[in-house]
Specification:
Length: about 260
């Protein structure tokens, strides 16, 4: 009987340990990190469809949408550091409320304009350097089965889809890759945008395949994003699957596991 009681006690302790671990993990996730699965190709080649990452919700302090509680005492304001140009940020769309991930290009007070596919910040050209081509198969990608857009299109199913790649250097020296599909796309030439106080301007790295701040909210774009709509910063890819299901282990991209987001 003593042995049985001891065994039962061990099972109870194991269950309690598991429950406590799950509770701690849940609290940790709620307070500090939020999982995010990349559903579209708007951030290629920085982020690919099927990348899975955790969003650092404490990167800028709590905002209206990163706060885990129903009534936060923060009044919708960011408390800690300000977002910086070049950060890859998850935010809530100002109109439809869906989660978006883009790169922060313009901070309050900046002017932003695209001219012939080149970014101008505060009237100064942001330098681009050729960085070869980005190549992928023309096939359905991810659970939503998106087909990629190709600079060398049209291409057949299973053929190689390419885009020109450039390295863009923002003021301050931060660099990232961008892709080009069209030579004179709708977003390649824009008016001058002046970023209002308390708001931000975002763009996708796959410049011709991104509905971002270059497009007005009335036509489905992002427009300017208020500070209290920021959720957090994407710092590192934890897992990546190139198939239409994450269960297809033969499509896992092991070279992207734990890769830093730059």
């Amino acid at each position: 009987m003593a042995s049985k009681a001891k065994s039962d006690g061990g099972i109870v302790e194991t269950v309690k340990t598991v429950v406590y671990a799950l509770l701690i993990a849940g609290v940790f996730r709620t307070l500090f990190f939020q999982p995010f699965w990349i559903p579209s190709g708007s951030m290629k080649d920085t982020l690919l469809i099927g990348d899975f990452l955790f969003v650092n919700k404490m990167a800028y302090g709590y905002s209206r949408y990163s706060c885990p509680f129903s009534a936060c005492p923060f009044d919708g304001r960011l408390l800690f550091s300000e977002p910086e140009r070049g950060d890859v940020v998850v935010f809530r769309h100002p109109v439809n409320g869906s989660d978006f991930i883009k790169r922060l290009i313009g901070v309050p007070g900046d002017t932003v304009q695209m001219r012939n596919g080149v970014l101008f910040l505060n009237g100064e050209e942001v330098k681009q350097a050729p960085a070869g081509q980005f190549a992928e198969l023309y096939e359905q990608q991810g659970p939503m089965r998106h087909l990629p857009r190709c600079e060398n299109g049209p291409v057949g199913q299973g053929d190689t889809c390419t885009k020109s790649r450039y390295t863009e250097t923002l003021p301050g020296g931060r660099t990232h890759n961008i892709l080009n599909i069209d030579t004179n796309g709708f977003g390649d030439n824009t008016d001058v945008f002046t970023v209002p106080q308390g708001q931000y301007f975002f763009m996708g790295d796959n410049r011709d395949n991104s509905q971002d701040s270059r497009y007005g909210q009335a036509v489905g774009g992002v427009g300017f994003v208020p500070a209290d709509h920021l959720i957090g910063r994407a710092d590192r890819i934890m897992f990546s699957s190139g198939g239409t299901s994450m269960l297809y282990f033969w499509t896992w991209r092991s070279d992207r596991f734990f890769k830093a987001v730059e």
